[in-house]
């Protein structure tokens, strides 16, 4: 079986992957607080890779392309509890509370150190998924505010992420694409994240790179894969997804068409 989710409360999700190994690429629309219950999670972003284990907690910022690699570990499946901190709710929170918002805005993933406050918070949420009836909406709001208060008490810079309500504006296309080309997300999402309509994105891309987005993305992803195979001595099965290809056969075919030989030819010569 693939991944299943218990999502009875919209903003609180319990997700479980029954596969030993599962990969996906995401761009979240809301900040999300994540607690890894079991298994292992690898998060690959443009400039950094994170590894999380059971008991780890992190805040995943919105609008950040990432590759998620989920593993079973110690005989237990990947299992995570996710709480969405919606922009609407955060805006209401910061409007009604007198909060110093002088912290600079940030879009970085934040990993939290072990905390009794976080432990007790998630311990109080897990039993909700055993209920047969819906959790009252007011209680969900109470738990959401509790989560925000805990995060603000254990990390003095967290307001820089939670209070950032800016929408994607028109940004430097070349810089963004050079940092994020390895993420296999739709062109529509690339265009949104660079503050453009799809039509404008394609036009600006053609002016900047003198080619189409798809041709350029394929070439850059293949070059990255070649580097990882030849210089980092990784295997094709370990690099194809993290370099933006949906499956191994597609990657192998594109690689041979571009370089004239199969990716396995590199590893066999090592």
Short description:
With 270 residues, the protein is an alpha+beta fold. The chain has helices at residues 87-96, 116-125, 137-154, 159-162, 173-180, 187-193, 198-209, 213-230, 236-239, 248-259, 264-268; strands spanning 3-6, 12-17, 21-26, 31-38, 40-44, 49-53, 57-60, 66-71, 78-85, 110-112.
Topology of helices and strands:
Blueprint: E1 3-6, E2 12-17, E3 21-26, E4 31-38, E5 40-44, E6 49-53, E7 57-60, E8 66-71, E9 78-85, H1 87-96, E10 110-112, H2 116-125, H3 137-154, H4 159-162, H5 173-180, H6 187-193, H7 198-209, H8 213-230, H9 236-239, H10 248-259, H11 264-268
Antiparallel strand pairs: 1-2, 2-9, 3-8, 4-7, 4-9, 5-6, 5-8, 7-10
Helix pairs in contact: 2-3, 6-7, 8-10
Rg over CA atoms: 21 Å
Strand content: 15-25%
Number of strands: 10
Name the strands of the widest sheet in spatial order: 1-2-9-4-7-10
Described by strand count, sense and barrel closure, the largest sheet is:
6 strands, antiparallel
CATH 2nd-level architecture of the largest domain:
Sandwich
CATH class of the largest domain: Mainly Beta
Distance between the termini: 36 Å
Q: Looking at the structure, what is the overall shape? A: globular
Structural domain tally: 2
Helix content: 40-55%
Kindly report the average pLDDT value.
Answer: 89
Class derived from helix and strand content: alpha+beta
Determine the number of helices (DSSP H or I, runs of at least 4 residues): 11
Order of helices and strands: EEEEEEEEEHEHHHHHHHHHH
CATH domain topology of the largest domain = Jelly Rolls
Low-confidence stretches: none
């Amino acid at each position: 079986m693939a991944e299943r989710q218990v999502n009875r409360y919209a903003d609180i999700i319990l997700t479980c992957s029954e596969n030993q190994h599962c990969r996906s690429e995401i761009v979240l629309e809301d900040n999300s607080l994540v607690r890894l219950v079991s298994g292992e999670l690898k998060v690959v972003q443009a400039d950094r890779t994170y590894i999380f284990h059971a008991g780890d907690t992190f805040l995943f910022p919105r609008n950040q392309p990432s590759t998620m690699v989920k593993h079973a570990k110690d005989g237990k499946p990947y299992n995570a509890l996710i709480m969405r901190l919606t922009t609407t709710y955060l805006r209401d929170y910061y409007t009604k509370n007198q909060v110093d918002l002088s912290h600079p805005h940030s879009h970085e993933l934040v990993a939290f150190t072990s905390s009794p406050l976080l432990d007790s918070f998630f311990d109080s949420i897990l039993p909700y998924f055993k209920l047969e009836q819906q959790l009252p909406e007011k209680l969900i709001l109470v738990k959401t505010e509790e989560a925000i208060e805990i995060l603000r008490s254990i990390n003095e810079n967290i307001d820089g992420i939670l209070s950032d309500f800016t929408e994607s504006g028109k940004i430097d296309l070349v810089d963004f694409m050079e940092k994020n080309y390895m993420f296999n997300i739709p062109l529509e999402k690339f265009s949104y994240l660079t503050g453009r309509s799809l039509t404008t994105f394609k036009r600006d891309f053609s002016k900047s790179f003198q080619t189409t987005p798809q041709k350029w993305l394929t070439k850059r992803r293949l070059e990255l894969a070649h580097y990882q195979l030849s210089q980092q001595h990784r295997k094709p099965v370990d690099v194809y997804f993290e370099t933006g290809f949906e499956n191994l056969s597609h990657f192998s075919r594109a690689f041979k068409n571009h370089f004239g030989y199969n990716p396995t030819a590199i590893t066999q010569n090592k």
